[in-house]
Amino acid sequence: MKCIVFGHSNMTTMIMAANQDNKILVDENNIKFSLVQFPWLKSVSPIIRIVNNDQVILNDALMMELEKAGIFEKSEETVIVSTMTGNENHIISLLKNEDPFDFILPDEEDLPLEENANIISYDIMYRMILNRVEQWWPFVRGLKKLTERRIMQVSPVPPIGDNDRILEKLDQYFKENSENPEISSKILRYKTWRLLSKILQDLCEKDDVEFVPVPQSMLEDGKFLSRDGWYTDATHGSPEYSKSVLKEISSRL
For 171, what's the count of Cα atoms within 13 Å in the CB-facing half-sphere? Predict the structure, then answer.
């Protein structure tokens, strides 16, 4: 069986985990992983085009990379796995907002709220993040329709619970967008991660895509990225984290 795993920045440590220059990994279950890292987003924007109101055209450059990996080959069973996300949860909640906000997760209503925060309804938060996800999700949906293959979507990386660590390893994007960045509370960051995960699960169910959760071994207190999963920035998982994700994928094949 072949498993083609694709994405953007999340693939960096996937490839490091494979530890092979040709980006091919055969695991103990004899599953051949082909790892495809797309070019920098800005160089292939937009990843989709919508014509005639509802017809989705997938980006040629990205499709070429996937074709090289064999998404259309008929010689063996092939599963396609997406690691794409746009860091939607981090963009919204990694840094403290000038106008503090918070919201309530329906299934964890007892989680504390930010002091003096504007409480936004769950439905509004859901729609706000969904609008961001819909900028790239049609690519996954389109792949499912085009290839008619089994497709999986990997969960976004959970947040780091240590604010000092985040500030120390803050990504350049966030440094450039804030003169004096302050990290928001870990509970708020957990909530937005949970909400993004829920949105992806809902889309997966709707579009017949399988959702791959975070491996339990990579969760601290069931909410945050374990120390083994910390990487050299504040938003991505380590090679050890990626190795665990590959094992989680393999266990479902």
Answer: 14
